[in-house]
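Predict the structure of Mannan endo-1,4-beta-mannosidase.
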Amino acid sequence: MVTRKILPFHFLIICGLSIFFSCKTDNDDIILNNSSQKYSVTGSKILEETKPIQLIGSNSFHTFSPGSTAMNSWNIDVAREFIGNSKENPLTGSPIKDSNGAYLHSLQSVVDGNRINNRITILCGFGWDGTTVTEFTGKSPSQTYWWNAYKTKLQQWANHFKNQQDVWIEVWNEPYRYDRADGYTDEIWEKDMNELVAQIRNTGNSNIILVPCAEQGQDESVLINKGKLFLTNKENIIFDIHAYEKWLLDTDVSINNRLDQLKQRNLPIFIGEIAPMNAGILMNPKSFLDIISNRGISVCGWVWKNDENDQNALLTKSGLPNNNNNNNWGTIYKNLAVKSRNP
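Done. Here is the predicted structure for Mannan endo-1,4-beta-mannosidase.
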């Protein structure tokens, strides 16, 4: 597991998965959408065919060990897949041993393992070559030495999966420093994210794309300032917010006010990460999860892993919810995952 600097990011090895789609939709919840896509975005809603859905998922490490039946009992809808070695992780074929000695399974095999359990896959690059030096979190994308090579890799992923509508791509994990000490501006975010999205769309891939917020994923102010403009002439874009200190240490009143500002602008959001421990601070995610559940917002918890010694792991080694010194994180998230969806 990678130690976070001051804000989001985690790391380590794996577990199993699975899913079964569950969503509540009444006739008056139906939104007409002329798209032929199975999954699409209209306004702030994610749609399956024409019906709004709420997704409860988990971050996972299936590139190290694919297979996803274990998630079925939790009713997990979507797996946000960690790709720590974007440079070497194969698209198809047999597992490889990368330059760091890790065995990596193909992205297609990861997708297939999720698909057989009716689970959506979000592919997200977390690092360039599998080393801590090239972790994406906190980096200004266009200032990295692998920027152009990564754009080429993104094109390859997009082209390969463009006819697989249950495969969504997130363009980068947790960009820009938490304190903006890297010279960050919203204009830089806008330029970088537009360029990354273009790599995918230029292949003819019209699947849903996730675009991260600033300050290592936690700062939604860039969406207030730039979100509507960014969405101009674009389709099927969702903004990914990571809920750690800047959210979990906030008051319920303030959280609701912040979410209201996004809702008023009709911005589609997805909570791509949330966990009780980050930067050495133990937090309680329950109140935040209750708020987003009631609002119909989709979320992926961190992280599907069997390890009671990791406070963010959702499971123990024996497969039970992990409630070890983590504010009952395992049980809290399982209770959310198994209950009816509220799109």
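The CA atoms of residues 55 and 256 lie 20 Å apart.
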